[in-house]
Hints:
- The structure holds 3 protein chains of 3 kinds.
- Chain A is an alpha/beta fold.
- Chain A contains 10 helices and 12 strands.
- In chain A, a hairpin with a 2-residue loop joins strand 9 and strand 10.
- Chain C has helices spanning 25-30, 33-50, 52-55, 87-123, 125-140, 143-154, 158-169, 171-185, 188-195, 200-208, 213-237, 248-254, 265-292.
- In chain C, helix 2 crosses helix 4 (87-123), helix 4 runs parallel beside helix 8 and helix 12 runs antiparallel to helix 13.
- The longest helix of chain C is centred in the middle third of the chain and has 37 residues, at 87-123.
- The chains are: A alpha/beta, B alpha/beta, C mainly alpha.
- Chains A and B meet through helix 6, helix 7, helix 9 and helix 10 of A and helix 7, helix 8, helix 9, helix 10 and helix 11 of B.
Amino acid sequence: MTSVLDVRDLVKEYPVRSGVLRRVTGSVKAVNGISLTLERGRTLGLVGETGCGKSTVGRCLVGLIEPTSGSVLLDGVDVSAMSGRELRAARRRIQLVFQDPYASLDPRQSVEAIVSEPLRLHGLARGSESARAAALLDLVGLSSSVLQQYPHELSGGQRQRVGIARALALEPEVMVLDEPVSALDVSVQAGILNLLEELQRELNLAYVFIAHDLSVVRHVSHEVAVMYLGRIVEYVDADTLYSTPQHPYTQALLSAVPLPDPRAERARKRILLEGDLPSPIDLPTGCAFRSRCWKATDVCSSIPELRTTDYHAFACHNADQV
Amino acid sequence: MNPVLEVEDLCVTFRYREGDVAALRNVSFRIDPSESLGVVGESGSGKSLACSAIMGLLPANATVTGSVRFLGQELLGASESTLRDLRGRRLAIISQDALTALNPVHTVGKQISEAILVHDSSRSRAELRDRAIELLDLVGIPQASARVDNYPHEFSGGMRQRALIAMSVANEPDLIIADEPTTALDVTVQAQVLDVLKRIQDRTDSALMLITHDLGVVAGVADRVLVMYSGSVVEEASVDDLFYETSHPYTRGLLASLPRLDARDRSQPLYRIPGFQPSPADRPAGCAFHPRCDVVVAGLCDVELPLSIVAGPGHTARCHRVAIDGGAS
Amino acid sequence: MASPEPSPTSAPASASGATVKRPGFWRRFSRHRLAVLGAVILALLAIACYGAAFVAPFPQDQQDLLLGPVPPSAEHWLGTDELGRDYLSEILYAGQLSLSLAIAVALISTAIGVFVGAVAGYRGGWVDDVFMRITDLFLVVPAIALLALALQGLGPSPVSIVIVLSLLGWTYIARVVRGQVVSLREREFIDAARVIGATHQQVLMRHVLPNLSGVIAVNVALAVAGAIIVESTLSFLGFGVQPPQSSWGNMLSQASGLIGTPKVYLLYFPGLFILTTVLAVNFVGDGMRDAADPRSGAGRSSRRDRT
């Protein structure tokens, strides 16, 4: 059975121009060879910090950014090379929910216009767009009175629900969620996360959940992939990642997350990383994490490949298991 | 022991054409020397407003009543020169956006030196530079003697925040007010910055008032915690009491709705407090939280504002239910 | 289905904590007293000029050579001109042409400018460069001189005036629109429209242009004012509307030598109409500019609206 989403060796490179003549002097690989698979009804958490490339991956998946190389297969069909009408049709199967619930809604459109726009664009539900919009709102827990309102009249949580309803309009199989709750307060966040889980169960949706908040990712994901400077450094099911992380960066990441538990916090020994993220234009040779890793040795001058042992993939020469 | 900061019945009201809005209502708390107080709340709770009120940085249409005493001296209504003398010397402020707090056209070293110079003009240029290097080193900036001549844009976000901390503590303040200092930072960088803050605090023996929405940060940093909701303090307790002997229904709801890194059973949906926090102009009568409360007492909570009830030693909650269940007023 | 999400009873809190319903465009406009005044004056002028057949006290071009020029009196409120025609009536009829030219020029030049600016801003790259260099070229040229030359070449009919003025007037709005589109292009709702399957044209028409409506409306208003002045200038210089057609500009021209004489009212009155119209249009433009900006008026969503 083919996975609903299969990404192979995705690369996105940006040229770097400098000098008076704006010549291309180098390049930044925002995404540097990402491969992942996703099954229906499952959630893959994609985590990493600023500059790791996770948002770029998300945008490549939905076609907002054209990858430099690699392929994105939706149910076996490669969408990364598509354009025009083919791409538009393919878009129906994979949709994106944005981070900022306000910026992702057109302030000039009513909620009904926003949610029914996908239908109108693709000629679906002709004649009954309004009814379908109301049904979509019901699906995300909003009453139909919201239909006539405008984004600025809604709360952040409501706006995010509208964004989710819009994404569901085309009945996609895969939803890419780019930091869907980071801009929301804690108590609102819980509601959205519960909604997403419910929708996944009811509609058998596959989620790519991009986030930097590891506690949130823990709650929603079945599998997790950790990214650092454009590469996946660890990729395994969520329980294993959180209990026995192998890659030093994952370990540092997990140890840095503050726990709402004073005793646990006091008992913890935090791993504090040295130095800063290296500039992506000027990466160190070998393992990109080398400059900050406490386990770095000479062997780290060669780039570690992502190796899988027992369904647990990680890219480190000096990991515990090795 | 005389508190470093004593806030009593602080109220902030905004005047609008359409009417007055009471944004902050009767906020009272104290911070003792060397103590870390965490102020927690969601957006719209008033936590940043309280901070602005203490620092004297409210807009013109705001009316402030009550008392804010810093080292015994009343800040509300104090002259601008008094406030200026205190700010940067005995009262340090660290804000969220380090990039805009630093002047992009001066080197970091110069700005730290200036922070010292403003309050102590006796030092020479060389002395100031040395002190700046010392401070940058203290906050963990590598190669401090070289980086002291860098401009803010040459620093990464986390380093800028640490440089700002260095600037703030240059004069060994009695109180550091940090308003969401790590909210915009990555989690590993946040860990570095919080670690620096703690070390600095230990070094200078400063008290710390840390304003944040992140309960995890509070659990790791604070000695005592204030929880704010819709312009009032709803719970005040030691950090352990707040997390393990939670008293106020809002705090309980908040803790229950957090997804946990160390969660055992992930199949349960997260608890969600129904409804939403009212804005100051839309507050219901009585307790501001009552429409969302699972232990609401009809006829009481929707009518009368609850007083601050003692729920335990050093632990108060603004809740009628706590009073009924045995707390003392 | 999912647990229902309650709706706040009014707009979200502003940065200072108050909740105020954000007023609509017309309500904000109506707060601007000068703008309302301007709008009223323009409305009256439009009615008076276009309805001159009903409003004007005398028919158009009714000459009374025996009477000759007469200063304002009870019978002729603004006096009469050299040919004994009631000046008020002549001004009103001339206003039809002046106003029509101005509105036509405003609409056409705005249409051109919006198209150029939107395409340049949205496409970016070499298209942007080319379009903007063309715009710069048009800006550099000394307008009045070029207009005069063109009108000499094309013949000074109202149609050619409209064409020529429009071709030179679009550059300002093009730059403004381009700037706005460049910043709009970065907004997430544009990306969102692409993700749900909108083509570039659809994005431009359904999302970009509606969000420019405030800027466009303001520009149309200001373009009208500008067009009146340019047309009046041209006609005054003799390149614009030619007699026997009357526009305010050429009425000024015909009275140009009369300062210091008792017939100076023949100069002042058309000038007064031009002045009033331009001021009124400017006030309306100010009002529209303020009204289009949702940040004016009470309350604005706080920067990080997390509730």
